[in-house]
Design goal:
alpha/beta; Rossmann fold; 5-stranded parallel sheet; 14 strands; disordered N terminus; BCAA_transport; signal; Leu-bd; Amino acid/amide ABC transporter substrate-binding protein (HAAT family); Leu_Ile_Val-bd
Length: about 375
């Protein structure tokens, strides 16, 4: 961790938030207004629910300590019900009526992509919690994100396949924005890793049976299966594949990086591999890993209050504290100054990795931030 005054370390680990923020000429009574549109209900609720709980947990904790230099944090949240159209209406409300200083979340790629024009048009810093690389590529002035991208996930998976000598892969993906983007990135990247996509199947995210698609995959010469999706779909794919007697290596994306997937897939999840943030294996990291203290502090705090942690709540943690550190450095609630400081984020040790943003990179993570995991005996195991 760098020598600079780190809000994350003080406010998150040590919980000593008071007195860090001067905010220039801002009146002491004015709250720091953080807006959030999350999918707390609907098909993406297993993503949005831990995100909201994380935001609320830390905002409440900081406010209980007196806020930041007399400024309480006001979290203004709307639940889009996993509906991108509702997300657009809510982000307009956050900008026009609630006058938020920064937005943390959209949950899903579809919602985030739909929200971007509003944030860009109004000049409000927007830190998305969704996976699609299209959120930050090409770079958009006011838009940032904290989760690893679908493009990074495909690359990490193909690296692992190449090490295992896998050259022919069957691709199956869902109908959501993240799923479609992941499919496109997988198709584009496969040739770079010497991998041939021998099947390209899709399903609707509300489908309850994928045996037809998997039966077609079984008839190919695929050496492994890659499923890009989130929600219940990947668990159904996993169970159906095992029910059909398909014993090929099965890869999932980071869209299933929570215990919920293991619960839904049951014994069929055994042996599934996926790239994910180190949060899922925090205790298993070496003691000299710079993320370990941050991960353990968040994990223990969250699980003491809510139960098993997920990487999705971790994305909200990263987004919140990247925003608060930017406000700290900006010494202002001016949106443009906050945006500039988010873009200057360097050496931020979060749950997703060590973030180093720049004008050319509004994510700030590389492939080293991803860990390849395998599910064994109902738990996560590092395989590299």
């Amino acid at each position: 961790m760098s020598g600079r005054r780190t809000f994350l370390k003080k406010a998150s680990i040590c919980v000593a938030a008071a007195g860090l923020l001067g905010l220039g000429g801002v009146q002491a009574a004015e709250p720091i207004r953080i807006g959030s549109v999350l999918s707390v209900t609907g098909p993406a609720s297993f993503l949005g629910d831990p995100e909201l709980k994380t935001l609320q947990m830390y905002v409440d904790e900081i406010n209980a300590k007196g806020g930041i230099d007399g400024h309480k944090i006001e979290l203004i949240h709307y639940d889009d019900g996993s509906d991108a159209k509702k997300a657009v209406n809510f982000v307009k409300r956050l900008i026009q009526r609630d006058k938020v200083h920064v937005i943390v979340g959209g949950t899903t790629s579809g919602a985030s992509l739909a929200m971007i024009p509003e944030a860009e048009g109004a000049g409000v810093p927007f830190i998305s919690l969704a996976g699609s690389v299209k959120i930050v590529e090409p770079v958009k002035k006011w838009v940032f994100k904290t989760p690893h991208t679908d493009k990074m996930a495909a690359a990490k998976i193909f690296e692992d396949m190449r090490r295992r000598g896998i050259k022919k892969v069957a691709l199956i993906s869902g109908s959501g924005g993240f799923d479609k983007s992941g499919r496109a990135e997988s198709l584009a990247l496969a040739p770079e890793y010497g991998i041939e996509i021998v099947a390209d199947e899709t399903y609707n995210n509300k489908d309850t049976d994928m045996t037809a698609q998997l039966t077609r995959i079984r008839a190919t010469d695929a050496e492994a299966i890659l499923n890009f999706g989130f929600g219940t779909g990947p668990a159904i794919v996993t169970k159906n594949a095992r029910q059909l007697g398909i014993d090929l290596p099965l890869y999932q994306s980071h869209g299933v990086a929570s215990k919920k997937f293991i619960e839904l897939a049951g014994e069929a999840a055994e042996g599934v591999r996926l790239p994910a943030a180190a949060l899922l294996v925090a205790e298993k990291l070496p003691d000299n890993d710079p993320q370990k203290p941050v991960l353990l502090a968040y994990k223990r705090k969250y699980e003491a209050k809510y139960g098993p942690v997920s990487t999705f709540g971790g994305h909200a943690y990263d987004g919140l504290f990247i925003a608060l550190e930017a406000i700290d450095r900006a010494n202002s609630l001016d949106r443009a100054k906050i945006r500039d400081e988010i873009e200057r984020t360097r050496g931020f040790v979060g749950t997703g990795g060590v973030f180093n943003m720049s004008p050319e990179d509004h994510l700030g993570l590389d492939l080293s931030a991803f860990r390849m995991l395998e599910i064994r005996n109902g738990d996560w195991v590092l395989v590299e």
